[in-house]
Amino acid sequence: MFAIIDRTDLRLIRVLHADARLSVTALAERIGLSPNATAERMRRLQREGVIAGFTLRLDWAALGRGLIAFVEVKLDRTDGEVFDAFAAAVRDVAGIDECHMVAGGFDYLLKTRHADMAAYRAFLADALATLPGVRETRTYVVMEEVVAGGALPG
C-alpha cells in the first residue's frame, strides 16, 4: 500500500533530504507549517515508511576510503539457491557500499570503497572471489565522483 503524499509532504521531504539535521522548528518555518503539524507529518511519513531513516554523508577520502570501484558480478548459476547464498554472504563483506541484483549481462552490481588500488586488489582476491557462486567479475574504477546522493526530482 502506498502512502498518500501531498505537496506539503513533498516540500518537507525535499527540505529534509537536503539537510536532515534541521530542527522541527526550522523545518516548519521552511515549509510554512506549525512545528506541531510538521512533527506530526514527519511521524506519519516515518510510520508509513516514506522516511526510512536518517544518514550522514561522509567524506570517504578523509576516512581513507577514497577509491570507488563498481564491480559487475556474474554468478556460475542463476537459481534461487545461488542468489540467496550470494546475497546472504555479501551483506557481511567490508568494503561493499551497495549491492544490487540487476537484469542484463551480469547478476549483481556492487559499489565498493577502498583506500587505494592495492586495497581493492586484496579485496578482490580475499573477499569478492571467495563469495558463493562468483564466476566472473568486471571492475570499473571511478576517476571522479560527479554527483552523489542526488536530490529529489521536480
From TrEMBL:
Keywords per UniProt: Activator, DNA-binding, Transcription, Transcription regulation
UniProt-listed InterPro entries: ArsR-like_HTH, AsnC-type_HTH_dom, Dimeric_a/b-barrel, Tscrpt_reg_AsnC-like, Tscrpt_reg_AsnC/Lrp_C, WH-like_DNA-bd_sf, WH_DNA-bd_sf
GO biological process, one term: regulation of DNA-templated transcription
Pfam families on file: AsnC_trans_reg, HTH_24
Record-linked Gene3D superfamilies: 3.30.70.920, Winged helix-like DNA-binding domain superfamily/Winged helix DNA-binding domain (1.10.10.10)
PROSITE patterns: HTH_ASNC_2 (PS50956)
GO molecular function: sequence-specific DNA binding
Protein origin, superkingdom: Bacteria
Sequence ranges assigned to domain HTH asnC-type in this UniProt record: 5-66
SUPFAM superfamilies tied to this protein: Dimeric alpha+beta barrel, Winged helix' DNA-binding domain
UniProt GO cellular component terms: cytosol
Protein name: Leucine-responsive regulatory protein
Gene from which the chain derives: lrp_5
